[in-house]
Amino acid sequence: MDILYFAWVREQIGTDREQLDPPPEVQDVAGLIGWLATRSPGHATALADPARLRAAIDQKFATLDESVTGAREIALFPPVTGG
Amino acid sequence: MIEVRLQSAPFDAGEELARLDRLGGGGVASFTGIVRGDDGLTELLLEHHPEMTLRMMRALAEEAVARWTLLGVTLIHRHGALHPGDPIVFVATAARHRGAALDACASLIDRLKTQAPFWKRETFADGRSSWVEARAADDDAAARWLRDRD
Description:
The structure holds two protein chains of two kinds. Chain A has three helices and five strands, in the order βαβααβββ. Chain A starts with a strand and ends in a 6-residue tail after the last strand. Chain B is α+β, with helices and mostly antiparallel strands. In chain B, a hairpin with a 4-residue loop joins β7 and β8. The longest helix of chain B has 18 residues. The model of chain B has no long low-confidence stretch (mean pLDDT 95). The interface between A and B is medium-sized, with 16 and 27 residues.
Protein backbone atom coordinates (compact mmCIF):
# COMPACT_ATOMS: atom_id res chain seq x y z
CA MET A 1 0.00 0.00 0.00
CA ASP A 2 1.10 3.60 -0.63
CA ILE A 3 1.57 5.70 2.51
CA LEU A 4 1.59 9.46 1.86
CA TYR A 5 2.71 12.15 4.31
CA PHE A 6 2.02 15.88 4.19
CA ALA A 7 3.17 19.09 5.91
CA TRP A 8 5.15 18.60 9.16
CA VAL A 9 4.44 14.86 9.15
CA ARG A 10 6.28 14.67 5.80
CA GLU A 11 9.12 16.88 7.04
CA GLN A 12 9.70 14.92 10.26
CA ILE A 13 9.59 11.55 8.50
CA GLY A 14 11.82 12.86 5.73
CA THR A 15 9.87 11.52 2.76
CA ASP A 16 6.51 12.21 1.13
CA ARG A 17 5.67 8.61 0.18
CA GLU A 18 6.51 5.01 1.07
CA GLN A 19 5.29 1.76 -0.40
CA LEU A 20 4.83 -0.73 2.44
CA ASP A 21 2.92 -3.88 3.24
CA PRO A 22 1.87 -3.73 6.89
CA PRO A 23 1.61 -7.03 8.78
CA PRO A 24 -1.88 -8.58 9.12
CA GLU A 25 -2.22 -7.47 12.74
CA VAL A 26 -2.43 -3.86 11.49
CA GLN A 27 -6.18 -3.44 11.03
CA ASP A 28 -7.14 0.19 11.44
CA VAL A 29 -5.57 3.62 10.94
CA ALA A 30 -4.50 3.83 14.61
CA GLY A 31 -2.79 0.44 14.31
CA LEU A 32 -1.04 1.53 11.14
CA ILE A 33 0.22 4.71 12.83
CA GLY A 34 1.56 2.63 15.74
CA TRP A 35 3.33 0.26 13.36
CA LEU A 36 4.80 3.06 11.21
CA ALA A 37 6.09 4.83 14.33
CA THR A 38 8.57 1.97 14.90
CA ARG A 39 10.26 2.45 11.51
CA SER A 40 12.66 5.30 12.39
CA PRO A 41 13.19 8.06 14.94
CA GLY A 42 11.63 10.50 12.45
CA HIS A 43 8.52 8.32 12.14
CA ALA A 44 8.39 8.03 15.95
CA THR A 45 8.46 11.82 16.38
CA ALA A 46 5.96 12.60 13.62
CA LEU A 47 3.49 9.91 14.68
CA ALA A 48 3.91 10.13 18.48
CA ASP A 49 0.54 11.77 19.10
CA PRO A 50 -2.23 10.32 16.87
CA ALA A 51 -4.66 12.95 18.22
CA ARG A 52 -2.70 15.55 16.21
CA LEU A 53 -3.05 13.54 12.99
CA ARG A 54 -5.74 13.19 10.38
CA ALA A 55 -5.99 10.46 7.76
CA ALA A 56 -7.46 9.69 4.37
CA ILE A 57 -8.07 6.18 3.03
CA ASP A 58 -8.08 6.02 -0.76
CA GLN A 59 -8.44 9.81 -0.83
CA LYS A 60 -11.44 10.02 1.50
CA PHE A 61 -11.12 11.45 5.03
CA ALA A 62 -11.13 8.65 7.59
CA THR A 63 -11.21 8.31 11.37
CA LEU A 64 -8.48 6.50 13.32
CA ASP A 65 -10.69 3.46 13.94
CA GLU A 66 -11.43 2.82 10.26
CA SER A 67 -10.15 -0.37 8.67
CA VAL A 68 -7.14 -0.14 6.35
CA THR A 69 -7.61 -3.66 5.02
CA GLY A 70 -7.56 -3.63 1.23
CA ALA A 71 -6.73 0.08 1.01
CA ARG A 72 -4.47 1.19 -1.85
CA GLU A 73 -3.47 4.54 -0.36
CA ILE A 74 -3.35 5.91 3.16
CA ALA A 75 -2.46 9.56 3.69
CA LEU A 76 -1.41 10.89 7.12
CA PHE A 77 -1.31 14.62 7.80
CA PRO A 78 -2.09 17.41 10.29
CA PRO A 79 -5.55 19.02 10.31
CA VAL A 80 -5.97 20.91 7.02
CA THR A 81 -5.50 24.69 6.78
CA GLY A 82 -6.60 25.77 3.30
CA GLY A 83 -8.70 28.73 2.13
CA MET B 1 -21.53 25.43 -15.01
CA ILE B 2 -18.96 24.05 -12.59
CA GLU B 3 -15.41 25.36 -12.87
CA VAL B 4 -12.88 24.01 -10.34
CA ARG B 5 -9.17 24.73 -10.62
CA LEU B 6 -6.03 24.13 -8.60
CA GLN B 7 -3.19 26.26 -9.89
CA SER B 8 0.03 28.02 -8.96
CA ALA B 9 -0.62 30.87 -11.41
CA PRO B 10 -2.64 33.97 -10.41
CA PHE B 11 -6.27 34.25 -11.52
CA ASP B 12 -8.30 37.15 -12.85
CA ALA B 13 -11.34 37.53 -10.58
CA GLY B 14 -13.01 39.94 -13.03
CA GLU B 15 -12.81 37.47 -15.87
CA GLU B 16 -14.16 34.68 -13.66
CA LEU B 17 -17.09 36.83 -12.51
CA ALA B 18 -17.93 37.89 -16.06
CA ARG B 19 -18.39 34.26 -17.01
CA LEU B 20 -20.89 33.77 -14.17
CA ASP B 21 -22.66 37.05 -15.01
CA ARG B 22 -23.53 35.63 -18.43
CA LEU B 23 -25.42 32.59 -17.06
CA GLY B 24 -28.74 34.45 -16.91
CA GLY B 25 -29.19 34.39 -13.13
CA GLY B 26 -30.32 37.25 -10.90
CA GLY B 27 -27.24 37.31 -8.69
CA VAL B 28 -23.56 36.51 -8.55
CA ALA B 29 -21.71 36.39 -5.20
CA SER B 30 -17.98 36.00 -4.71
CA PHE B 31 -15.21 35.76 -2.14
CA THR B 32 -11.52 36.36 -2.83
CA GLY B 33 -9.01 35.35 -0.17
CA ILE B 34 -5.83 37.45 -0.04
CA VAL B 35 -2.56 36.58 1.72
CA ARG B 36 -2.17 38.86 4.77
CA GLY B 37 1.26 40.21 5.70
CA ASP B 38 0.62 39.98 9.48
CA ASP B 39 3.62 39.84 11.85
CA GLY B 40 6.12 40.37 9.04
CA LEU B 41 5.00 37.38 6.98
CA THR B 42 7.05 37.18 3.78
CA GLU B 43 5.88 33.89 2.24
CA LEU B 44 2.99 31.50 2.50
CA LEU B 45 3.69 28.05 1.06
CA LEU B 46 0.63 25.99 0.14
CA GLU B 47 1.00 22.21 0.06
CA HIS B 48 -1.78 19.93 -1.21
CA HIS B 49 -2.58 16.31 -2.04
CA PRO B 50 -2.10 16.10 -5.80
CA GLU B 51 -5.32 14.18 -6.57
CA MET B 52 -7.50 14.29 -3.48
CA THR B 53 -7.56 18.08 -3.20
CA LEU B 54 -9.08 18.66 -6.63
CA ARG B 55 -11.53 15.83 -6.04
CA MET B 56 -12.69 17.31 -2.73
CA MET B 57 -13.05 20.76 -4.32
CA ARG B 58 -15.15 19.27 -7.11
CA ALA B 59 -17.32 17.37 -4.61
CA LEU B 60 -17.94 20.57 -2.59
CA ALA B 61 -18.85 22.47 -5.77
CA GLU B 62 -21.27 19.76 -6.92
CA GLU B 63 -22.89 19.58 -3.50
CA ALA B 64 -23.40 23.37 -3.47
CA VAL B 65 -24.95 23.35 -6.96
CA ALA B 66 -27.42 20.67 -5.86
CA ARG B 67 -28.25 22.23 -2.47
CA TRP B 68 -28.78 25.82 -3.66
CA THR B 69 -29.80 25.10 -7.27
CA LEU B 70 -26.94 27.21 -8.55
CA LEU B 71 -26.61 28.16 -12.19
CA GLY B 72 -22.86 28.22 -11.87
CA VAL B 73 -20.00 27.93 -9.42
CA THR B 74 -16.29 28.70 -9.74
CA LEU B 75 -13.72 27.50 -7.20
CA ILE B 76 -10.05 28.34 -7.64
CA HIS B 77 -7.35 27.56 -5.09
CA ARG B 78 -3.70 28.37 -5.60
CA HIS B 79 -0.75 26.30 -4.38
CA GLY B 80 2.99 26.85 -4.07
CA ALA B 81 4.74 29.96 -2.77
CA LEU B 82 2.54 33.04 -2.28
CA HIS B 83 3.27 36.48 -0.86
CA PRO B 84 1.36 39.21 1.00
CA GLY B 85 -1.29 40.75 -1.25
CA ASP B 86 -1.52 37.70 -3.51
CA PRO B 87 -5.00 36.32 -4.15
CA ILE B 88 -4.99 32.74 -2.83
CA VAL B 89 -8.55 31.47 -3.18
CA PHE B 90 -11.63 32.44 -5.19
CA VAL B 91 -15.22 31.30 -4.74
CA ALA B 92 -18.06 32.61 -6.90
CA THR B 93 -21.64 31.47 -7.30
CA ALA B 94 -24.46 32.40 -9.68
CA ALA B 95 -28.09 31.80 -8.79
CA ARG B 96 -31.55 33.06 -9.67
CA HIS B 97 -31.74 35.00 -6.38
CA ARG B 98 -29.25 36.62 -4.00
CA GLY B 99 -29.96 34.40 -0.96
CA ALA B 100 -28.82 31.23 -2.69
CA ALA B 101 -25.78 32.89 -4.26
CA LEU B 102 -24.63 34.44 -0.95
CA ASP B 103 -25.26 31.37 1.23
CA ALA B 104 -23.61 29.01 -1.24
CA CYS B 105 -20.57 31.28 -1.51
CA ALA B 106 -20.18 31.57 2.29
CA SER B 107 -20.66 27.83 2.76
CA LEU B 108 -18.10 26.99 0.10
CA ILE B 109 -15.31 29.09 1.58
CA ASP B 110 -16.03 27.78 5.11
CA ARG B 111 -16.00 24.16 3.97
CA LEU B 112 -13.01 24.63 1.68
CA LYS B 113 -10.99 25.69 4.73
CA THR B 114 -11.71 22.51 6.67
CA GLN B 115 -12.42 19.88 4.03
CA ALA B 116 -9.92 20.38 1.24
CA PRO B 117 -6.46 18.94 1.95
CA PHE B 118 -4.25 22.03 1.94
CA TRP B 119 -1.55 22.90 4.46
CA LYS B 120 0.05 26.34 4.89
CA ARG B 121 3.61 27.04 5.95
CA GLU B 122 4.38 30.62 7.01
CA THR B 123 7.81 32.23 6.72
CA PHE B 124 8.54 35.57 8.42
CA ALA B 125 11.04 38.36 7.78
CA ASP B 126 13.14 37.31 10.81
CA GLY B 127 13.59 33.81 9.35
CA ARG B 128 11.01 32.01 11.53
CA SER B 129 8.97 29.42 9.65
CA SER B 130 6.14 27.20 10.88
CA TRP B 131 3.09 25.25 9.75
CA VAL B 132 -0.23 26.98 10.38
CA GLU B 133 -2.34 25.25 13.07
CA ALA B 134 -5.96 24.49 12.24
CA ARG B 135 -8.43 26.76 14.07
CA ALA B 136 -11.42 25.45 15.99
CA ALA B 137 -13.36 28.51 14.77
CA ASP B 138 -12.94 27.30 11.17
CA ASP B 139 -14.33 23.87 12.10
CA ASP B 140 -17.29 25.55 13.82
CA ALA B 141 -18.00 27.70 10.75
CA ALA B 142 -17.95 24.68 8.44
CA ALA B 143 -20.05 22.58 10.83
CA ARG B 144 -22.75 25.26 10.90
CA TRP B 145 -23.51 24.62 7.20
CA LEU B 146 -23.81 20.88 7.76
CA ARG B 147 -26.03 21.42 10.82
CA ASP B 148 -28.33 23.82 8.94
CA ARG B 149 -28.90 21.32 6.15
CA ASP B 150 -32.44 19.88 5.99
